[in-house]
Design a protein that fits this description.
This protein is 50% helix and 15% strand. The chain has 300 residues and is of the alpha+beta class. The strands form two sheets. A five-stranded mixed β-sheet has the order 1-3-8-5-6. It has a five-stranded antiparallel β-sheet with strand order 2-9-4-7-10. Helix 4 packs antiparallel against helix 5 and helix 8 crosses helix 9. It starts with a strand and ends with a helix.
């Protein structure tokens, strides 16, 4: 696992897996054509989506190991590093990888909103687990792309290829929505832990030492990627994770405003605001009154 293989181009990755390069910017890689190999870490300079057919070692991503089972889709954005830990054993890769370079989608509608597909920022252990029906839809999309790659390039090629990638990513968005619902019980637990985390955060001196809790901080404490955590909170509550944190901050502020011995600046500092005016602005946006107006109106 010490070796880092770098793949900057589609043709380099195709050559590594014994696949022909039909297009310099995109490929549907049949991993079963590759030679048997040991696990290694790999850097990808392009979008990479793995569809695994059988278990063949554990995927390692950052500090986490992910048990990479049959019918799993894993998404990687350019610049990410991952690897297979085969525990020193030789294994035969199987399954498929859809790889495409950012240059393919530059100037297209997909290129303009590729960041909306937040699952490219998920960790491997937040992968998409497919039903047999869903897996078939994925393979159908891959087959359509392969058909276009094997067809002589004409004026329609790029448009049809990019449209099919967009169709595929649209299905993946739907499948993730399904997964959020089918794993609702587990996700309820995350929401409860999020609540507990925020409560504890404000009971300690963390706001004064490290400031307001961020989405990234909360996600990290809950062992989730910021993207997955944000999508989960949005689906569970209808609010973004940032809005949820702000609501909690405003609720606490309303309680503390009734302590007449504390100035608004003091309350802002206690809650983690670096500048009181930021607190005042947020409070007015969310409540419709300044903290002092709220205090005067509601203090008996």
């Amino acid at each position: 696992m010490d070796t880092l293989r770098r793949f900057e181009t589609i043709s380099e990755y195709n050559a590594f897996n014994k696949n022909e390069t039909l297009h310099p910017l995109i490929s549907v890689v049949d991993l079963s054509k590759a030679n048997p190999r040991q696990g290694s870490r790999m850097y990808f300079g392009f979008y990479t989506i793995f569809l695994k057919d059988v278990k063949c070692g554990d995927l390692v991503y950052g500090r986490h190991t992910y048990d990479y089972q049959e019918g799993t889709l894993v998404f990687m954005a350019p610049g990410q590093i991952a690897g297979i830990n085969s525990n020193g054993e030789i294994y035969q890769p199987k399954g498929y990888a859809l790889v495409f370079h950012p240059d393919l989608i530059h100037g297209t509608p997909l290129g303009r909103h590729i960041q909306d597909y937040s699952f490219f920022g998920y960790q491997f252990y937040e992968a998409l687990h497919l039903s047999n029906r869903e897996r078939q839809i994925v393979l159908d999309c891959f087959a359509k792309i392969e058909y276009e790659l094997e067809h002589a390039i004409d004026k329609h090629s790029k448009k049809l290829i990019v449209a099919t990638i967009e169709l595929f990513l649209g299905y993946c968005t739907r499948f993730y929505d399904r997964q959020f619902i089918t794993r609702e019980t587990a996700h309820k637990g995350v929401l409860e832990r999020f609540e507990t985390l925020l409560r504890a955060y404000f009971q300690e001196d963390k706001p004064q030492t490290i400031g307001l809790p961020t989405v990234t901080y909360c996600a990290g404490e809950l062992n989730l990627s910021a993207n997955y955590f944000g999508d989960l909170i949005k689906k569970e509550t209808g609010k973004t994770a940032q809005e949820y944190i702000q609501t909690k901050v405003i609720d606490l502020a309303k309680e503390r405003i009734f302590d007449q011995s504390k100035s608004v600046s003091q309350i802002a500092y206690e809650l983690g605001f670096k500048y009181p005016q930021h607190f005042i602005r947020l409070f007015k946006q969310r409540v419709g009154q300044s903290p002092n107006e709220y205090r005067m109106l509601h203090y008996n």
